[in-house]
Specification:
This protein is of the alpha/beta class. 42% of the residues lie in helices and 12% in strands. The strands form four sheets. It has a four-stranded mixed sheet with strand order 2-1-3-11. It has a four-stranded mixed sheet with strand order 7-8-6-9. A two-stranded antiparallel ribbon has the order 4-5. The protein is globular, with a radius of gyration of 23 Å.
Length: 459
């Protein structure tokens, strides 16, 4: 399978990175009686020397625009105390982020800040890939974020990194396309389509004039980017379970048991539906098309509300005729909560400046700038009191209502990184025709083998 080949290549490159990094000469020691400004963190700021923070992040233009504006604002705080701080970004696609964070920390690469997915924070905490920050935030500062965000960014009760935003996925649609197909999506979460009802809409919205299976207009893209992963694709199987069932839970209470949770008959049934979307009903392409909703190649799109920022940037506010409806479900509506957090690398040579930027970026002032560009649910409670999009009924308010009504965290385990990589590969294989039962059974076994080292982590 193409996905297996990709993982093999990625692992090969990471090994090469480790070897090359290990071969680099050690940094020269400070001369006796001299001052090593980098080692002492804040010294460079007091002398006015430029401090460059290396920030490892997701490739995303909206996010980079937000951070650049944040940096300008950061230069102004505390009478310009941090005016000498600059940021150098290194960005990679989503699927490359997680293994590279760990390998680069292990290799001693001098990153300062990295972007970490909420469910991975416990993994990073267990493996000491991120610096604990609990002692640097007061109780009042912790209260500026939703409690769920604080929990997602913590390990064994200590904050590892503050949140950038919160999340919940719904189904966005191109109103011009749905109108042309005679489709009227529900406007209330209570009337959200079941998966079978959604399938009928996706079929109507798929336009394939010559019948060759390659549509001119696809019915749906399930999930962001071109990857598979737990955030959106894990919804299929969990949605096919009643609340509290093993299928809905997705994992044992010990955080390391997946047999009997990942591979239940209900989970297999749900992933068969996912395969049928690609191969039988052909409402979504087998080989994902980049940006196929925002480029008007797909009628429906399962996504958090960050798509609004992208549409506004590409077309201008109000120029793309879109709507939003509830996320389709089998038995139980589900949207996964949790989103990106800031992490400070143990290898940082500028901890004081990195901490100051992270605290500003995650404050109400920084989060306000972030929201203006990304337009996704803020993690900062206070912002909801000043954003009319959430205070009034309308398209964007639906994401907040969904998060409060049926949002659930992605599974909380220090082995989330390993779990997601294995499940993503299984889901990609299933979309290309592999047997769902065999894939999920094998994935559950592989995940348990990889996670055995975490036994007792939450006791």
């Amino acid at each position: 399978m193409r996905s297996k080949k990709f993982l093999w290549i990625a692992n090969f490159l990471l090994v090469g990175l480790l070897i090359l990094s290990a071969c680099q000469p050690a940094a020269p020691a400070a001369e006796e009686g001299g001052t090593d400004a980098a080692a002492e963190g804040g010294e460079a700021a007091s002398t006015g020397d430029t401090v460059t923070l290396r920030f490892f992040a997701l490739t995303d233009e909206d996010q980079l625009n937000a951070w650049n504006e944040m940096l300008d604002a950061f230069h102004q705080i505390e009478d310009g105390k941090y005016a000498n701080v600059e940021i150098e970004f290194e960005t990679v696609p989503f699927q490359e982020m997680f293994p590279k964070i760990e390998s680069s920390v292990a290799a001693g690469l001098p990153w300062d800040i990295f972007q970490a997915d909420g469910p991975d924070m416990k993994h990073y905490g267990f493996n000491k890939v991120v610096m604990p920050l609990g002692e640097y935030f007061t109780e009042d500062e912790l209260k500026q974020w939703f409690p769920q965000s604080v929990e997602e960014g913590s390990y064994n009760g200590e904050l590892l990194g503050p949140p950038m935003m919160q999340s919940c996925s719904l189904m966005v649609y191109n109103k011009d396309m749905t109108d042309a197909a005679g489709i009227t999506p529900p406007t209330s979460l209570d009337d959200s389509w079941t998966m079978s009802e959604a399938m009928e809409a996706w079929k109507k919205a798929t336009v394939d004039p010559d019948g060759d299976g390659i549509a001119d207009q696809w019915g749906v893209r399930w999930g962001q980017g071109t990857w598979t992963g737990d955030y959106e694709h894990g919804i299929f199987r969990r949605s096919n379970g009643e609340i509290g069932s093993d299928t809905y839970k997705g994992m044992g209470d010990d955080g390391i048991t997946f047999k009997g949770y990942l591979d239940t008959p209900e989970a297999v049934e749900a992933m068969q539906f996912y395969q049928d979307m690609h191969l039988k009903d052909k409402v979504t392409p087998v080989e994902p098309i980049p940006d196929n909703f925002v480029s008007r190649k797909s009628a429906f799109y399962i996504t958090p509300d960050n798509v609004i920022g992208t549409l506004n940037r590409l077309y201008g506010e109000g120029e793309f005729n879109w709507g939003v409806t509830g996320i389709p479900y089998f038995k139980t509506p589900v949207c996964h909560t949790g989103s990106w957090h800031y992490g400070i690398s143990p290898n940082t040579q500028h901890f004081d400046e990195a901490l100051a930027f992270v605290k500003f970026a995650s404050s109400d002032d920084g989060a306000r700038i972030w929201y203006q560009h990304v337009r996704q649910l803020p993690a900062n409670v206070g912002l909801f009191n000043e954003l009319p999009e959430y205070a009034e009924d309308g398209n964007q308010r639906l994401w907040l209502d969904a998060m409060n009504s049926f949002g659930i965290p992605r599974i909380q385990t220090p082995g989330y990184t390993e779990y997601q990589q294995v499940f993503a590969e299984a889901a990609a294989n299933i979309s290309q025709g592999a047997d769902p039962a065999e894939q999920l059974t094998a994935a559950a076994g592989r995940i348990e083998s990889l996670l055995a080292k975490y036994a007792g982590w939450n006791q």
